[in-house]
Design goal:
Elements: H1 3-17, H2 27-43, H3 62-72, H4 83-96, H5 99-111, E1 116-119, E2 135-139, E3 142-153, E4 160-166, E5 177-183, E6 189-194, E7 203-214, E8 218-219, H6 225-241, H7 253-262, H8 269-297, H9 305-328, H10 340-355, H11 362-373
Parallel strand pairs: 1-4
Antiparallel strand pairs: 2-3, 3-7, 4-5, 5-8, 6-7
Length: 399
């Protein structure tokens, strides 16, 4: 099948199966609708396009993936519940998981039968993830987990999570961490929603109280969690920076052009110049992410360049916010009741700061780019060789 034939099939499928807006539905029904569409798209061969056939994918090239993305951008596809699994946890399992883990978890992840979340950040370990205090202690054929995670997107409906926990406090903080697969329905797991400034609750805090997981739930190696974390963070940054924009995203280029027309600003040379800049940045980012996906499909890890994609994606959103303000002015701050377009724009703008934080703040990305790509000196780090047990981290108490 040629890429053009694949594109035609994707276009036909989306025209027949893409659901309409789901915002008016209750959250539980939204999730059911999202899972129905994900399953239908998977069965049609449009999910996991570049993933190995051995683990439920199509084994095709990034050209087919790009063709699908270009068709999908015209629809409001309910992909949000699956983004962490598809963009972060699944690729990490492909890189580091055992054959048994990949066989067990990847096909249902792709089809949307099982949803995943990422359990990294803690109240005292945000940008410095290696300072995490959640503990995993081996007990015969199990690991026992105790601790707290925070800012966990989608935990409220996730079936599994990729968890970072400390397994050895007697070595420096980067060397005593292990990544685990945890069943989010296990006894002792408590999920509590956190509401953000948009009024929604997209993420959560998660508590683990004597949660038992099997010994073979380790992703990679015991004590190798920092490598696993870097692997997942690389995938996360590419996923965030290169995510397919929804057709109705009010901050997308096409919709800002329409906003300029409605506001009679489309012929304003300043507005046109700003829109041209935004278009150029949006296209450059899309091409850069295509290159990273092609290299990843060929077996070459993007490494620190994932931070370039993530930083560029966050800065593109801020550019879009500034452009929207230039076009609409005070209309962004007040509107009549029932003006859903204005409300969605306000929600998009209020949600933009999160994109400069999720997956590592812009400042963290610049440090990574400077140190690992440009070869600049690292910032001083006095605790790198100190056993974690001896560090004063957050509210840590010496065991």
């Amino acid at each position: 099948m040629s890429v053009d034939e694949f594109r035609a099939g994707a276009r036909e499928f989306l025209a027949r199966n893409a659901p309409g807006p789901l915002a008016e539905l209750e959250p539980a029904e939204q999730l059911r609708a999202a899972k129905r569409f994900q399953a239908a798209a998977y069965d049609a061969g449009l999910i996991g396009i570049t993933w190995p056939t051995e683990y439920g994918g199509r084994g095709l090239s990034t050209a087919e993936q790009q063709a699908y993305n270009e068709e999908a951008v015209h629809y409001d596809l309910p992909s949000a519940p699956f983004m962490v699994g598809m963009g972060m946890c699944g690729p990490t399992l492909l890189d580091l998981g055992s054959h048994e883990q990949k066989t067990r978890y990847l096909p249902p992840l792709l089809r949307g039968d099982e949803i995943w979340c990422q359990l990294f950040s803690e109240p005292g370990a945000g940008s410095d993830v290696a300072s995490l205090q959640t503990r995993a202690v081996r007990d015969d054929d199990s690991w026992v987990i105790n601790g707290q995670k925070v800012w966990t997107s989608g935990a409220q409906f996730s079936d599994f999570g990729a968890l970072l926990a400390r397994t050895d406090p007697d070595v420096p903080k980067h060397r005593g961490i292990t990544m685990f697969i945890v069943d989010m329905r296990s006894p002792g797991v408590t999920v509590r929603p956190l509401r953000d400034m948009t009024g929604r609750a997209p993420f959560n805090e998660v508590y683990f109280d004597d949660v038992r997981i099997p010994a073979d739930a380790v992703i990679g190696e015991v004590g190798g969690g920092w490598l696993a974390a870097l692997t997942m963070l690389g995938h996360e940054r590419i996923s965030i920076g290169g995510s397919v924009r929804r057709g109705s995203d009010p901050l997308a280029y096409d919709n800002l052009v329409e906003l300029a027309r409605r506001q009679n600003r489309a012929d304003d040379p300043v507005v046109r110049d700003r829109l041209a800049e935004m278009y150029a940045h949006e296209r450059a980012l899309a091409l850069f992410n295509t290159k990273l996906r092609q290299e990843a499909a060929a077996g070459s890890s993007p490494g620190a360049r994932g931070s370039v994609a993530k930083l560029a994606g966050a800065e593109l959103l801020w550019r879009a916010v500034d452009t929207a303000g230039l076009i609409a002015g005070s209309a962004l701050t007040s509107w009549e009741d029932g003006d859903s377009e204005a409300e969605e724009m306000a929600i998009a703008i209020n949600g933009t700061p999160a994109m400069s934080i999720a997956g590592g703040s812009n400042q963290v990305q610049r440090n990574i780019i400077g140190e690992r790509i440009l070869g600049l000196p690292k910032e001083p780090q006095v605790d790198r060789d100190v056993p974690f047990r001896e560090l004063k981290v957050g509210t840590q108490r010496t065991p």
